[in-house]
Design a protein that fits this description.
about 0% strand, mainly alpha, flat, 2 domains
Length: about 100
């Protein structure tokens, strides 16, 4: 439902993010996500500019407890590290 609505209403300032956050909070409250949930503010319409995918992955890795000196060098390695570090993944957190 949220995906359909957001695809139809692409304009800025109409509440797409607020709707998605509301739906996410409701899903967590209903027990649909029993593990951890992480969120990255991508600053889609921020005058200062948006965040890149590289910046978002680094934010996720730090939120998962990976220290700066343990961050992988390439974006592809960082994505793999996020996948391995996710709580539901074999090996648990901090598996970089």
């Amino acid at each position: 439902m949220v995906w359909w609505w957001c695809r139809r209403c692409r304009g800025w300032g109409i509440g797409k993010t607020a709707l998605a956050l509301h739906a996410a909070h409701q899903a967590v409250a209903r027990g649909w996500f029993t593990g951890r949930a992480l969120w990255v503010e991508m600053r889609g319409y921020n005058p200062a500019g948006t965040r890149s995918c590289v910046q978002a992955i680094e934010i996720l890795l730090r939120a998962l407890g990976v220290a700066d000196e343990e961050l992988p060098a390439t974006f592809e390695e960082q994505v793999g590290c996020v996948r391995r570090s996710w709580p539901a993944a074999p090996g648990g957190a901090n598996a970089c």
